[in-house]
Amino acid sequence: MAQQTDSSYLINNSIDRNTVDLNRITQVRQRAPQFLSQLTEMAGAILAAHDRLKIVVVHGWNVNQSRCDFGIGAPLEKNTKPTAEMPLTISPEFFEDFLVTLMASGSEAHYSCGERFPARTRNNLLQLFRRDGTRANEIPEPLSQAVTDGRCDAVQIELGIPLRWPGPQRTAFVAEIAEAMSKSLKKNRKNEGRPARTNHQAASLQLYDERAGITLLASIDSFASASFARLAVIFCDGRVALYTGEAKSLRKLGRDGPVFTQEGLDLILSFRGTVLISPSGDDYVDLECALARSSLRNAAVDLRLRSGSNDSGSVLGAIDIGGERFEVDCTGFATPRQWGGWRRASRTRWVAHAAFADGSARTLRNKPADRSTARVSLDRDGYTPHELVIVEDGDRIVVTPLGRMSIARPVGPGRRARVTFGPARIHNENSGAIGTGIYEYARLIDR
C-alpha cells in the first residue's frame, strides 16, 4: 500500500500485539516510546516539504470477509456527513474526497466507517490526532502543531484476511486505495498554486567551517509585535550573502526564508530563496550603499545539528550560494537569543562561541553585573574589534576575528549600536587549547 501511494511507512514486523499493543497509548508510552518518536520524525520530514499530512494506521481483522472498516474517532451513521464540531480525526474534506469515494466504489471489498472499529476510546492511538486538538499536547513537535492547525488527517483501517493476505483481492484493494488517495491529493493540489504554509519556530544556528571557508548565522526571532528571519553567510574572501524577512507573526513569515524544524534532539535548518551578495562585510553599515553594491543570487541551505551539550553539536550538510557549493562538517551552536533589552548604562556587548580541537565547545558572553571580563582592542574606526581577550572562570581566552560583517541597528529609543560579527580563531592561553568559532561585538554609536 505504501509503495502504491508513494508513502513513508513504519511497520511492526517483530513485536507481538499480545506483548505490546501499539494501538494503545498507555502501552506505547510505557513499553515502546520509540514508536511515537519514529512516527514524529517521519511526519516532520513530510511537513517540511508539504502543507498537509495523512496518517493511515493499518490493523488486521480476523474475519474471512473482504471487509475494510475505517476508524475516524467516532462512528458515523449511514448517510451522515461529518462536521468540524465532531470529535473526529479527519477533516470533512478528506472524508468526502477519500472515504466516500471508496465506500461508493461498488468494489468487491466491503467498506464501512466505524461499524466495528471506530477508534473512539480514549486510549486508542488515533485519539492523539483529534481535529479539535485536545490531545495534541501529548505529541512531540512538529506533529503536534500540524494537528493543532488542522493539517493532519488520521484514519485507522481494519482489514479482513482476504484484503491482507497475498492474492487478487488484496491486489485490487490496494489499487483502489491508491486511486482514491491520488484523487484526494489532486484536489488538495488545486489550492497549491501558492506556497504551502510553514510552521516556523524561533531558533538560531551559528557555525564556522574553517575547512570549507564558510560562516553561517541564521535565526528566527519572535516578539509580541513582529517576527524576523535572518540568514547571513560570510565567505573567506570577505563577501557576504544576506537574507532578511519580517512579518507580524511566525505563521506569516512564508516559505522563502530559513525554516527550522526539530527531529528528536536534532535541529534542522533548510532554506530555499534568494540572497543579496555584497562584496564586503562592511557595506551594511550603510544599508543604501550595501544595496547599491549587491546582486541577487539563488541559495539553498540544508544543515542538521546533532545536539551535544551547551546548545552545541556537530553540523553536517551543504550550503549553495549562486552555484558555489560548500560541504559543511563542523561544530555549530544553537544558542537562544543572546541579549535581552540593552541596559541604559551599557555601552558594549559581546559574545563568543568557541569549538576546540578536542571536541569541547564553550559559549562566553559579557554579563551586565561584570563588565570587566573582557579587554577589547579596536581598529581605528573605534567600533571594529581587532582582538578580544576574555577572562572567565580563571581562563584567559583570546578571540582573534578572521572576517566580519558589520551593521548598524537600533537598541532603544534614540540609541543605535554598531554590531560586528564573524568567524574567529580562539586560543585558551591557560590550557593551550586552540579552536575556532563565532564572535559578535556591539558598541553604541556616538552621536
Write the SSE topology.
Layout: H1 2-5, H2 25-31, H3 33-49, E1 53-61, E2 67-71, H4 92-103, E3 110-113, H5 143-148, E4 152-160, H6 161-164, H7 168-189, E5 203-209, E6 214-222, E7 227-235, E8 240-247, E9 259-263, E10 266-278, H8 287-292, E11 295-307, E12 312-321, E13 324-333, E14 348-356, E15 361-365, E16 374-378, E17 385-392, E18 395-401, E19 405-412, E20 415-428, E21 434-444
Parallel strand pairs: 1-4, 2-3
Antiparallel strand pairs: 2-4, 5-6, 5-13, 6-7, 7-8, 8-10, 9-10, 10-11, 11-12, 12-13, 14-15, 14-21, 16-17, 17-18, 18-20, 19-20, 20-21
Helix pairs in contact: 2-3, 4-7
Describe the structure.
The protein has three domains: 2-189, Aminopeptidase; 198-337, no CATH class; 340-447. Helix content is 17%, strand content 40%. It contains eight helices and 21 strands. It has helices at 2-5, 25-31, 33-49, 92-103, 143-148, 161-164, 168-189, 287-292; strands at 53-61, 67-71, 110-113, 152-160, 203-209, 214-222, 227-235, 240-247, 259-263, 266-278, 295-307, 312-321, 324-333, 348-356, 361-365, 374-378, 385-392, 395-401, 405-412, 415-428, 434-444. α2 crosses α3 and α4 (92-103) runs antiparallel to α7 (168-189). The radius of gyration is 27 Å and the shape is elongated. 34% of the residues are buried. Mean pLDDT is 85; it is low at 190-197.
> Can you list the strand order of the major beta sheet?
5-6-7-8-10-11-12-13
Which structural class best describes the helix and strand composition? alpha+beta
How far apart are the termini? Answer: 69 Å
Largest sheet composition? 8 strands, antiparallel, barrel
Strand content: 35-45%
Task: Give the uncertain stretches in residue-range form.
Answer: 190-197
Q: In CATH terms, what is the architecture of the largest domain? A: 3-Layer(aba) Sandwich
Question: What is the tally of beta strands?
Answer: 21
Q: How many H/I helical runs? A: 8
What is the overall shape? elongated
- Mind telling me the CATH class of the largest domain? Alpha Beta
Using the CA coordinates, give the radius of gyration: 27 Å
Helical content class:
10-25%
N-to-C SSE series?
A: HHHEEHEHEHHEEEEEEHEEEEEEEEEEE
Please, how many domains? 3
Q: What is the fold named in CATH at topology level of the largest domain?
A: Aminopeptidase
- Overall mean pLDDT stands at 85
